[in-house]
Design goal:
Length: about 300
């Protein structure tokens, strides 16, 4: 039996400009292609889960505006359960301004809008409505007190709790004891552990430090170098497929969504991290956030390529 997944987090409209390089402070750069794409870390992870074949409900807050309505409609079309979405008439929907350079690296500024109004009471009530779901995935683009309430509620209901600590916030260390799996990237892991990750040995040291601080299991994503997994006392390096990246905007979200899907299917943590690396490697070869997220059949084709 497949376990169902709850995602609690943010929903934004991404406004993206692709340009030669990301401007320095005070610099104006003449950009190239502009497009709008539904995004937000919670929304991206939910769409990734749906496209990769699992049942998912999204819990979040949108504004009563065109961006919020478009995002909810697209969610519904993707097969994401929108029963946990709350509309706030007093707020605008979240907006992200994204610059992508020719190497595919990005710079992002977010105006959270209604995401900042998602309250502990909102998430507690919504999570309890889906108490039969077994996996809870969160990020940090909603208020920290709301994250804390969601973590506590999920733990009380016996869910497997996964936290993607992005964007990095040191305050989350107060809630490590509620987290079954934490999935920082190398920069977030450095901020939380105090250990600069320069190679796999440092990555292992950072993972063990986070575990000592109270998290049960740690996965640190390393971009093109894949990920490292610390499960109980066992440490693994999971490589990523070699690809030519054009936009890394949603890579971490795709990884986390794929990780949750694999775990819902009973895969081991190491296998789930491998699933995440392959899915993310497909996403970075495309522009955009949700527009870059692969479907399950693409993942299977990618696996077949690796076997040749």
């Amino acid at each position: 039996m497949l376990n169902k997944i709850i995602v609690t987090g943010s929903m934004n409209m991404d406004m993206v400009v692709k340009t030669d390089h990301i401007p320095k402070p005070g610099e104006t750069v003449l950009g190239g292609t502009f497009f709008m794409n539904p995004g937000g870390k919670g929304a991206n992870q939910s769409v990734a889960i749906a496209r990769l074949g699992a049942e998912v409900v999204f819990i979040g807050k949108i504004g009563d505006d065109i961006f919020g309505k478009q995002s909810a409609q697209l969610f519904d079309e993707e097969g994401v359960d929108i029963g946990g979405i709350i509309s706030d008439e007093s707020s605008s929907s979240g907006i992200a301004l994204i610059t992508v350079d020719r190497q595919g690296e990005n710079s992002i500024v977010v105006a959270p809008g209604a995401n900042a109004k998602l309250s502990p009471a909102d998430v507690s009530a919504a999570i309890k409505r889906y108490a039969n779901y077994k996996i809870l995935l969160l990020q940090l683009e909603i208020p920290m007190e709301t994250v804390a309430c969601a973590l506590q509620t999920g733990k009380e209901l016996g869910m497997k709790v996964i936290l993607n600590p992005a964007p990095a916030n040191k305050e989350v260390k107060n809630y490590f004891h509620l987290i079954d799996i934490i999935t920082p990237n190398e920069h977030e892991a450095e901020m939380l552990s105090g250990i600069k990750i320069e190679n796999l040995d440092y990555a292992q040291a950072a993972a063990r430090k986070l575990q000592e601080m109270g998290v049960k299991n740690v996965i640190i994503t390393l971009g093109k170098s894949g990920a490292v997994v610390l499960e109980n006392d066992d440490f693994y390096h999971v490589p990523a497929p070699v690809v030519e990246a054009v936009d890394t905007t949603a890579a971490g979200d795709v990884f986390n969504g794929a990780l949750a899907v694999a775990l819902s299917e009973g895969k081991s943590l190491k296998e789930a991290a491998g699933f995440g690396c392959i899915a993310a490697s497909i996403a970075v070869t495309r522009m955009g956030a949700q527009s870059s997220i692969p479907y399950r059949n693409e993942f299977i084709l990618e696996q077949m390529k690796k076997m040749k």
